Amino acid sequence: MVVGFKLIFVVLMIQFEKFQLANGLKVLVHQDTSTPMAVVNVLYNIGAKDENPAQTGFAHLFEHLMFGGSVNIPVYDEPLQRAGGENNAYTTNDLTNYYCQIPAENIETAFWLESDRMLSLAFSEKSLEVQRKVVCEEFKEHYINKPYGDAWHKMRALAYTNHPYRWMTIGAELSHVENAKIQDVKDFFFKFYRPNNAILVVTGNTTTEQVKTLAEKWFGPIPAGEAYERNLPMEPVQEKMRSLEVHADVPMDMLMMTWHMGGRFDAGYHETDLITEVLGGGASARLYEQLIKVKQLFSSIDCYHFGTVDPGLLVIEGKLVKGVSMAVAEQAVLEEVEKIKNELLPQKEVQKVINKTESIICFEDMSIMNCAHSLAFYELLGDAEMMNQELEKYQAITPERIQATANTIFQDRNRNTLYYYSKN
Amino acid sequence: MALDRIKAPLIKDAVDFDIQLKPYQHFTLDNGVEVYSYEGGAEEVMMMDLVFFAGNCYEEKNWVAAATNFLLKNGTHQKTAFELNDHFEFYGTYVNRTCYNETATINLHTLSKHFEALLPVVSELVTESNFSEEELKIYQQNQLQRLTLNLKKSDFIANRLIDEYLFGIAHPYGTYSTEASFKNLTRDDLVQFYDRFYKHGKAVVFMAGKFPKNMQSLMNKYIGALPLNQKALPSYEHPIISAATKKYSIVNDASSVQGSIRMARRFPNRHHPDFPGTQVLNNVLGGFFGSRLMRNIREDKGYTYGIHSYLQNHVQECAWMISTDAGKDVCGATIEEVYKEMAILRNEKMDEAELKLVKNYMLGALLGDLDGPFQIMNRWKTYLLNDLDIAYFNKTIETVRAIQPADLQALANQYLQPEDFYELVVY
Asked: ipTM of the predicted structure?
């Protein structure tokens, strides 16, 4: 292979149209006539980071309550299922997203349902009581009843001293969700679930004309709310390395390290994304090859980040081979990190991770569901058109730029380490 | 006129949708390997599934099939594991392998234009893998650690044990790995299995997406020239030996805050005439978010984050499974409610409106599932590997459309009898 050989990808641009209703609701449409389906996606600009520190887990609890009936429709799911549709939702630290996929001929059902729950929920005590329990079981299933299930709770609290990324979307503790009151729910709803704080995306077998008519009809009459001014506490620059030791009933030692990285709007974001690919993306990545295969210090190791809007964390985490000491494992990880800082990556390796990223984008664009999620997310960032510029940004990245970013991020004073020891 | 938000917009009933499974194309390679393909899609991407009859029903020693499949990509006589992975990843290609009971696959997802550069290396995996002692050692060590970790998880243990109760530990569907399975693996085991079931094995290929123009000749050059499909597969007999005891409660971790509940019965495979109707009944019971189990146990009682029922995907014989993780103090109540829901289905005819909702949901979901070339080919793959054809697809749709409450009640009386169910809680 010629070093620097560059692959040219044929990536289709995602075409879309955009308009805004008088109440502030942004609407995006991507037409795809090859499918019999349509996706109706409503993103609310409210994530766990917008929660009161004394009431964490609320954005996610709220996502559950959104299925507990709205002001005019007692049950959300049934009419959708009757129309042949399916739905789901997710909450992150940055946003809450609801989506349904439905045969295109029945698309109006989705508009009817989504607009009614934007108009107002039913605020039923019974629904709140049940969903509090369901979320508590979710908490137990994923974070208590699983080995290392609390690692991320601890890491977030270690790495963030001020910014609300300090807690997970499920909540900092069970009691916050257990103590949620119906008045809290109402306040939260009317503060955040307003048309001017939402983005509606429709993809699939539809037309902009149809979406315009339906959006005006169903969402148009919903009054705008007070504009939400997000004013989050900033995370101060970390001055000193921090670490925490945990001893728990787990079968093997785990090492988790994080470094503060830029947010979506910061220079170096795309470079950081590629750094995680170089280190942790697949079986030819550096950490896998060096630490699992060659040195055999780890039985598994990953490097990733969460793609958060605000400055996030670059993560390296791995489980140690039994008998390997934490210090040796840590040193070996740091050696790989030093290599990226001190030695320019070979052009071919950079090209590999760019190619991989391009391929991921290509495969993601195949489904009208992913397409709807992406359009909504990039519109939240400021402009959905950015979705079509991502590839160019990656393609412009050079080994020099990766090295510079690595030197900014991989500093000891910027590092947080969780030493998770097996008690056995 | 004020907008009426109470009344639902008019819908087209999904039962009236024209749902078609588009036909595949088919050709045979020079060595007799059949290739089933579906061409289409807007993006320049494709997938290829190389399916070998190399599942664990052919192994004579536990875990040999899975280990052979896993290590296919970990070195050939010409290339190291790193070089193989680096090659695939340079093209942004995903090469995965998976081992099932009857079959084991090498799966390729790639941009279509790179197919030609990738196929020779895929072909190399089929004939030149070398299973070095070093790679095997690393695999054993890491899999052992993974097993130790998984054995801490109640859901992992519950999934293994319920299959063992249903099919017996000696059956490919009921068996699982232990520390000994990994420790006892030798390089010879893998080399022999590889030689018999990959290199000189029986294969069938499924492809979908946008193909390069010379796809057929490339396939013939790199797959059609391999010594595949020359030797008949060995016959095997794996009698199902279900456990005599039906109820189990196991404490894996005394400090656990939840219990993993599995309730299951044996069920015939897709060729049985009751299969399509039971799929409808399964949806009513626990097959989707609006199912009775979900509405009662999650949405009314809040005992669990989720409860599901499904028909297991097996060739020889299936199982009907109900699966949930529930709060430790409500596991008993959850099981009781599941039996109550079974009793209601046996004793009461469901109302037409609920059945119509389930039918519409199922057909709408099916329409979505058949959206795109990969999805269409995946459906065909399942059918072809289970010896089914378009008649099965049409019969399923026809059954969903036509089935009546009385039919479902009859099925419930036949198949939802508590005494037929294994019941397990792992804390």
From this structure: 0.88
